């Protein structure tokens, strides 16, 4: 694998990323989250360092933190977590769903060109930088604000070569996202959709994968048997080169250091064993954890 990924502490050769969890949450802190979503409030660097060390001890080398600045993400705190824990952390720019922003937030009304300037600066400006563009939709039909967001992402991808990670609310809306990105000229091979394994329909996943995108199957901590079965089915159908794994462990109850039963690091142990039980060979599992995310996370601009 040639090229580099952009972590909060600097660019890392893609083939040195090791085991990757492609959709995680280490810092989430904003007044909206603290007041309205305390179950996902993760403001503490010290707590994040403790959990990150456990993730590293499980053999994971890199995580993508999927909370953009402005919605609760903080690049400076992620850089501190990375320095203290030794974990590679890739931050995201872009936007989450509108519920994470106050009604008067400029992100919700800015034209696409202005949003793109913010996103490009986050990827190319002073360290710590972002290495992924986060997009989100809430339903099957995009809102005007979501359309502007996707237009801004297209400008940003063209300017920086950064990869794209999307949020599919309830796992749905993936095909509408694909249609928008295809129309805007975003290369679908640079796009990874999250949370689709919340939807049980295998045909939905196959339809998405046939467009050329990657899927981040990230419900393994919540419904490990179903997600493992879906992974095995899709690998068996020939889509093993388009799947990556994560946990979306934003909830405090999912961190082992805060009392959770497993923690994100379990993916490289217990979940790996579930995949092996379903007939996947080591090389196939390594592709999901290492080869595929390394290819996707390359910043090509």
Properties at a glance:
301 residues, alpha/beta, TIM Barrel, 8-stranded parallel beta sheet, 38% helix
Annotate the secondary structure layout.
Layout: E1 4-7, E2 10-13, E3 19-24, H1 31-36, H2 45-57, E4 60-65, H3 75-85, E5 88-94, H4 112-124, E6 130-137, H5 144-160, E7 164-168, H6 174-184, E8 191-194, H7 202-209, E9 214-217, H8 224-236, E10 243-245, H9 270-277, H10 282-296
Parallel strand pairs: 3-4, 4-5, 5-6, 6-7, 7-8, 8-9, 9-10
Antiparallel strand pairs: 1-2
Number of domains: 1
Q: Please name the fourth-level CATH homologous superfamily.
A: Metal-dependent hydrolases
The overall strand count is: 10
Main structural class = alpha/beta
Percent of residues in helices: 25-40%
Instruction: Indicate the proportion of strand residues.
Output: 15-25%
Tally of separate helices: 10
Stretches where pLDDT falls below 50 for ≥5 residues? none
State Rg.
Answer: 17 Å
- In CATH, the topology is named TIM Barrel
Query: Which CATH class applies here?
Result: Alpha Beta
Quaternary status: single chain
What is the succession of H and E elements? EEEHHEHEHEHEHEHEHEHH
> What does the overall shape look like?
globular
Q: What is the name of the CATH architecture?
A: Alpha-Beta Barrel
Largest sheet, spatial ordering of strands: 3-4-5-6-7-8-9-10
Arithmetic mean pLDDT: 97
- Termini gap: 16 Å
Largest sheet: 8 strands, parallel
């Amino acid at each position: 694998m040639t090229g580099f990924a952009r972590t909060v502490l600097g660019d890392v050769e893609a083939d040195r990323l090791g085991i990757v969890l492609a959709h995680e949450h280490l810092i989430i802190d904003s007044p909206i989250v603290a007041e309205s979503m305390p179950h996902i409030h993760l403001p503490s660097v010290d707590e994040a360092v403790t959990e990150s060390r456990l993730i590293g001890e499980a053999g994971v080398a890199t995580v993508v933190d999927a909370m953009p600045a402005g919605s609760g993400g903080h690049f400076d705190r992620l850089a501190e977590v990375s320095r203290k824990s030794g974990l590679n952390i890739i931050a995201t720019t872009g936007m989450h769903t509108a519920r994470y922003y106050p009604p008067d937030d400029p992100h919700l009304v800015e034209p696409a060109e202005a949003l793109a300037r913010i996103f490009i600066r986050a990827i190319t400006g002073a360290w710590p930088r972002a290495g992924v563009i986060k997009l989100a939709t809430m339903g099957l039909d995009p809102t005007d604000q979501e359309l502007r967001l996707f237009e801004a992402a297209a400008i940003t991808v063209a300017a920086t070569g950064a990869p794209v990670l999307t949020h599919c609310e309830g796992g749905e809306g993936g095909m509408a996202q694909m249609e928008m990105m295809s129309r805007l000229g975003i290369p679908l091979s640079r796009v990874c959709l999250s949370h689709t394994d919340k939807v049980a329909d295998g045909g939905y996943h196959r339809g998405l994968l046939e467009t050329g995108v990657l899927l981040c199957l990230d419900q393994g901590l919540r419904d490990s048997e179903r997600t493992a079965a879906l992974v095995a089915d899709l690998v068996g159908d020939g889509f093993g080169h388009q799947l990556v794994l994560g946990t979306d462990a934003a909830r405090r109850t999912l961190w082992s250091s805060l009392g959770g039963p497993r923690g994100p690091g379990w993916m490289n142990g217990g979940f790996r064993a579930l995949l092996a039980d379903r007939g996947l060979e080591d090389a196939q599992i390594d592709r999901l954890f290492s080869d595929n995310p390394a290819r996707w996370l390359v910043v090509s601009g």
